[in-house]
Amino acid sequence: MNYETTMSGALNDEMLEDNADRNRRRMIIAALIAAILIVAGGAYYFFGQGKESAATSAEAEKAAQAQTVSVVVPGSDTVAQTINATGTLAARREIPVGVVGEGGRVLQVYADAGDWVSQGAILVSVDRSVQAQQAAALEAQIGVARADLQLAQNELDRAMQLVERGFISKADVDRKTATRDATRARVNVANAQLAETRARNARLDVRAPVSGYVLERNVETGQTVSAGSGILFRIAKDGQLELQAKLSEDDLAQVDVGIAATVTPVGTDRVFSGNIWQISPMIDAQSRQGMARVALPFDKALRPGGFAAVEIKSGVMTAPVLPESAVQTGPNGSFVYVVGKDNKVKQRPVKVGPVTANGLIIEEGLAGTERVVVYAGGFLNPDETINPKLLKKQ
């Protein structure tokens, strides 16, 4: 009895221990499963949804590190279109003056460069002592011819009285009439020769063909001049001057006769107002340029042959205007950086017009509503993210 009881108790204890071991194994397996689930969930979080969070964080960090760049919205301004060029000052009508007679020794020069002369004024007097004696001889010949004419006329008058009485034949009267007519013709020839000589003598003096401003003098007292002596004077007719500006084909298409222009000679800050009076009908085949002539009033500060800058007012236009710092230059021409909604910069090619006091006129490429980088454009790259700082347009 005691033995059975003892054996029964031992069996019960062994069964209890087996149950406890099984429970412990179940708990360990459950714990392992829970750990695996936790690890899997964490992995999903970090490698799945965590990617989006990481990307968002990276973008935020990148935006926080982006450089701050000044931008401006240019809008549209009404600006005066101007064409800037350079050219040469010249006389609008330059008249060369030379010897028109037979010439001779110069007795006196009455005009110098920088003088005003009137039309017909004597510029140079030439020795005419020989020509004066020739004229005197012709005058004497006229006197002789007139005396012969008077004698022939008297004889004809007497013959006409005698022919009525029958003392002289009609043939004698005809001969005396012919003699009288021939003598009269010789008088006329002598008068014509004297007039020609006097005209030639008058042409010995060099006279101003027009009124104007003497630009150049190339003759001195005592010099012997002739028709082959070349140009003795150059005269600007009525003192009218001009600027001969060379313009490109595009610029020539924008100008017309009568358009106002301002001219500034090199070496001075004086500005002279004028207007275009003539546009060249031809384009130079080598330079691809044409001539626009700007009429200018006379002023001693405008020296023909000198250079001058000209600004031609070619009209008005409505276009964006940007500071010069906003426009960059690349292999393909001018461009600007435009900031998009995502604050990334993009290159935008533009066509730059004339320079104004407010900046560069953008003729093509911008509507005026874009955000354009003003400064530091040379340090940016396309698609780079920036922190735009909007500037108020001046």
List keywords for this structure.
single chain, 394 residues, alpha+beta, 6-stranded mixed sheet, 6-stranded antiparallel beta barrel, 4 helices, rod-shaped, disordered N terminus
Task: Itemize the secondary structure elements and their pairings.
Layout: H1 2-65, E1 68-72, E2 77-91, E3 94-97, E4 104-109, E5 116-117, E6 122-126, H2 129-163, H3 170-204, E7 206-207, E8 212-217, E9 224-225, E10 233-237, E11 241-248, H4 249-252, E12 260-265, E13 272-279, E14 289-296, E15 307-319, E16 321-322, E17 328-330, E18 333-339, E19 345-349, E20 351-356, E21 359-364, E22 371-373, E23 387-390
Parallel strand pairs: 1-23
Antiparallel strand pairs: 1-22, 2-11, 2-15, 3-10, 4-6, 4-9, 5-8, 6-7, 8-10, 11-14, 12-13, 12-15, 13-14, 16-21, 17-18, 18-19, 18-22, 20-21
Helix pairs in contact: 2-3
The helix/strand order is HEEEEEEHHEEEEEHEEEEEEEEEEEE
The largest sheet, given as strand count, sense and whether it forms a barrel, is: 6 strands, mixed
The proportion of residues in beta strands is 25-35%
How many whole angstroms does the radius of gyration measure?
A: 54 Å
The gross shape turns out to be rod-shaped
Number of strand elements: 23
What helical percentage do the residues reach? Answer: 25-40%
* SS class: alpha+beta
Q: Distance between termini?
A: 117 Å
Mean model confidence by pLDDT: 81
Query: How many alpha or pi helices?
Result: 4
Return residue spans where pLDDT drops below 50 for at least 5 consecutive residues: 1-11, 48-52
